[in-house]
Structures are given as structure tokens and as C-alpha cells.
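Quick one: structure for this chain?
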Amino acid sequence: MRSLPWSWYTDPEVERLEREHVFRRAWQYVGRAEAVADPGSYLATDAGGVPVVITRDEEGALRAFVNVCRHRGSVLVADGAGRRETLQCRYHAWTYRLDGTLRSAPRAEELETAGLTLVPATAALWGPLLFVNPAADAPPLADTLGDVPQRLADAGVDLARLRFHGRVEYELAANWKVACENYLECYHCPTAHPGFSALVDVRREAYRLEADGCVASQLGPLRAPAKTGRVAAGHFHFVWPNLKLNVYPGHPNLSVGPVLPAGPERCRGFLDYFFDPDADDAWVAELLELDDRVGHEDRELVEGVQRGVRAGAVPDGPLLPESERLIVWFQERVADALGSRFTSS
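Got it. Here's what it folds into:
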């Protein structure tokens, strides 16, 4: 079983096709639901390369739009969250209501503007988490999440109780697929992550790998019975195409965030951390320290892979059919998305 061609991890044309055929119709986690909880609130961000703005209009309806003026294509609202009564373009002051309809435009008598609205996207909530899909006809978010909400609930994680702790942002000198594939296997954990491997049993016979629909899951039992908290095992779920959902053993917790392309050989992302209000401060600090250490260890690994594939001296590599089965699942989805649109020698 062979990997995708390594040239797919450096070629600008592959990245362009991935943005168009992977991300433009994909659900993306963009932040906390509280950012758009009240009428008049908005969040402007990026969804896989598409600028989007999510609003809560005067009637309380949650809406999403491509954050681009219909006049000359300028981005309407700078990234960030806040409250406002309208969305006004700073280029020519075309002004839209929070339901996306055009309210006014200077010298509008020169042309027909009836029916001209912002291009719709789709927004949805999962507990305290806010998602957006650049497509107006996106499938329900629940179809993409599959059984992850039930798995977390069964593990003792009540999203409604969790409280936001903070966000960590990062950028890596590696293709987004390299970072995702690193997340999708723990074959490297005994060698590269001694702290993690001391907490979670990563032996092949203990560490479970599962894939169903849009979700690939890794389930790791504790090496010793938990001394604190209700969560007895590690849950590490990947939601196609680029979302990481992590639950560590102990007190109920969640870290969630996307891996986003930032060029053929760069990616960026963030993780939002949530904890149960009863979680001990010392335990939270210890978990964050461990997770930060794992992140630094992974940075060296993925950037080392990128340097290797960039050389072009090796065309591809073998994949272990069991230990790397989630990478196989991921690469098959990438290949299916690109289809016959790109052929690499």
C-alpha cells in the first residue's frame, strides 16, 4: 500500500484544487457560539480560504454569508467579532442588513439593485461550538459529526458544562496534509511522545483506530486507573477534512480546532481549550503543559517530513495497513476529492 505522491505536498496546483474541491464545501469550526449569541452580533473569519461572516440578525436568526461585497468584491468586515446594525463595505459604502439584503448604496439609481444580496453560506452550532460551511446548500452538520457527540457524552463530557479557557494559535512549515496525517496515527508516539505515552496506552493491541463516514477516531485507555475526574480514556477524533477534537483522561475537557492550508508548504491552525468548571487548576495546568510539549514534538516531526518530501528524491512511501489505516482513509478522501482533476507522475 503506497502513499499519495509526495509531489502533492509541495505543488501549488494541488493546493489550489484542494481549496476548491475539499474546503469550499466543508464544515469548519470557527469559534465559540457565544460570539454570535445576541441579535446584532457577528463574527468575521475565514473558512478554508473563503472569507465568511456569521450574524445573528434582529429576529434572532443565525445566518452566514460570504464576506464579500457584491459590488467590487471587497471584503466587507475585517476579521473579528462584535456588534453592529449593518455590514458596510469600506470601499464604496454599500450597506447590507444582517440578513444579507442590500439596504443602501450610494448612487444606486444608476443601476438595478433589486434582489442583490450577500452570497449565503451556512452556519450551525454544536453546543458551545460554532461552525460554518461556505456552501449555501451544505449538508447538516450532524451528518459530518456522525457519532462524535454521542461518544463524547458517553465518555462523560457534557459540552454544555464546559467553560472556555483559552486559544493557542500556531503555524507550521509543512503542508496541511502532513500535519493531519501526523495527527491520524500514534505509530510514532512511543518514539516521539514519551510523556503522552506514559499517560495513554499506545500499544497496538490497546490503542483503537476507527473510521466511519467523515470521522476517524483514536481511542487510548489510561496506562493506570484515573486518580481524578470522570473521563477514563483519551478520545482523539478527526472530522474530515481538517478538524481535531481532543479529550484527555481526567476531568471533562475538550480542545478543538482546524488545520488550514497557508500555502503549498505551510499550514496554520488553532486549538480552543474548554474545561469542566470543577476541574482542578493544577490538573488543568499539567494537562496544558503536556499538550504543549506534544505540540512542540510534533512540530519537529512534520517540518522534518516537509523538508524530506520537498527534496523530490523519493516519490512516495509505504503505509502500514493497520497502524496507519486512518492515514489510508484520509488519503483516499483527498484522492477522491481531486479525482481526475490532477494527475501526478
